[in-house]
């Protein structure tokens, strides 16, 4: 699974399936409400990964999680 989060003015969540079969999760304006929605739809996600998506933001990162997904935090604009 790929997780892309960017800062916009309105909270939204979009989950898309890539041609490779992976899921791409796009969450804009991350907040605790949005992350609760993510956790409900994808309960296999690590709690610490979800917390890393809340402000204050850390540096961008990519972490391979053993079985099941790659966790990424990307901040735009660069």
Element pattern in H and E: EEEHHEE
Find the count of extended strands (DSSP E, 2+ residues): 5
Question: In terms of per-residue confidence, which ranges show pLDDT below 50 for 5 or more consecutive residues?
Answer: none
The biggest beta sheet is recorded as:
3 strands, mixed
Rounded radius of gyration (Å): 12 Å
Provide mean pLDDT, rounded.
79
Sheet with most strands: strand arrangement:
1-3-2
Decide which structural class fits the backbone: alpha+beta
Give the helix level as a range of percent.
10-25%
Give the overall shape. Answer: globular
Put simply, the count of helices is: 2
Give me the secondary-structure topology.
Elements: E1 2-6, E2 12-17, E3 23-28, H1 32-41, H2 47-51, E4 61-65, E5 69-73
Parallel strand pairs: 1-3
Antiparallel strand pairs: 2-3, 4-5
Task: Compose a concise summary of this entry.
This protein has 78 residues and is an alpha+beta fold. It has helices spanning 32-41, 47-51, and strands spanning 2-6, 12-17, 23-28, 61-65, 69-73.
Descriptive report:
The protein is α+β, with helices and mostly antiparallel strands. It is built from 2 helices and 5 strands. The protein has a 3-stranded mixed beta sheet, covered by helices on one side. Strands 4-5 form a two-stranded antiparallel sheet. A hairpin with a 5-residue loop joins strand 2 and strand 3.
